[in-house]
Amino acid sequence: MTLSPETAKAVSTLSKLTLELKPLHPLFGAEVVGLNLQEPLDDQTFDQLMSAFNKHSVLLFRGQHITDDQHVAFSRRFGELEKTGFAIAAPNPYIYRLANVDDDGNVLAPDAVKRTFLEVNARWHTDSSFRAIPAMGSILYAKQVPEGEGDTGFASMRVAYEAMPENRKRALEGIHAIHSYAYSISGFGEVGVTQGEMDAVPPVRHPIVRTHPPTGKRSLYVSGHIESIVGMPVEEGRLLVKEMIDWCTRPEVCLHAPLATARPDYVG
Questions:
Q1: Range of the domain at 58
Q2: Whole-model pTM?
Q3: pLDDT digits 0-9 by tens, 234-264
Q4: Domain containing 141 — which CATH number?
Q5: Does residue 114 sit within a domain?
Q6: Total domains present in the chain
């Protein structure tokens, strides 16, 4: 196949690209400048992007205009995709659609089941920690958010762990938690998730402290999906989980990504 001069020039430019990054927070998070996610990324550019992700944990891409298919195609570059498994989330199993409007753009009624489902996702949690193989990350595309509101909060488990006293780190070694989606939604009433969908994700066990393979850095692994701590009385374990989540989500160590209504943003 022979490329046109214009295409060859574009490919050459992409292959030489060095990502421009702007810090979003003193401790983690970066904005990626000048990358168009409508276009396929060459391997060199993706490698730079992956290195940036491993280093900064949260990446923000401003001003993106992508289709669902482009969203999924970009996501596949990071590995095998997880299917949502919850029909109420979205008709596309690879896209978890969170909105307070229906498919026709009408605002949901105050008592709509989908609103309760959204409340489950509004608290601090680690996506898919209730699965035996948790997600490496999530890629969010903000199409429309309220003016002056709607920022998405991120907490770095690595930053939280590194800030802990050494004796506290040692005390957490070897502790495991049971993550359960059924427990996670149990306090919210009807959320539109069927019993069969819950049975498909039975409770799983994960360590409270783990190592990030690409960097070798240690981090906490806590989530609102934790039902209990192995070897602890239930209530004592839940108090420990609350303590850990409170530690990880202190305002000074959290990043709130400002997403603008007039300019669709993409956060990975």
A1: 19-267
A2: 0.85
A3: 999 999 999 999 999 999 899 987 654 444 5
A4: 3.60.130.10
A5: yes
A6: 1
